[in-house]
Fold this protein.
Amino acid sequence: MVFPILEAMDLLAQGVTSFEEKCIRGLEPVIDLNQAHANTLIPRLTRLAQIHGYSKVNTLCKQAEGDLKKLEMLLDHLLGDPHPPGAFAK
């Protein structure tokens, strides 16, 4: 019983080593691209879905009808922003 566990652990260790050598070693982050991705709506939508629920955030996305400015306004309203963009426009 012990030998199969040791064999499985050895196989896993070899797999991790091979993965590191062939897939990870030499990778360098692209700071600008990573920052651009971090500043998209996706992280904000994910965070809001965790707080307010997927259904509510999905409803807001549908209401925006593909208009990112409208979506941002709706999200600001969801966050409780007392003065969303255009609130004082007449």
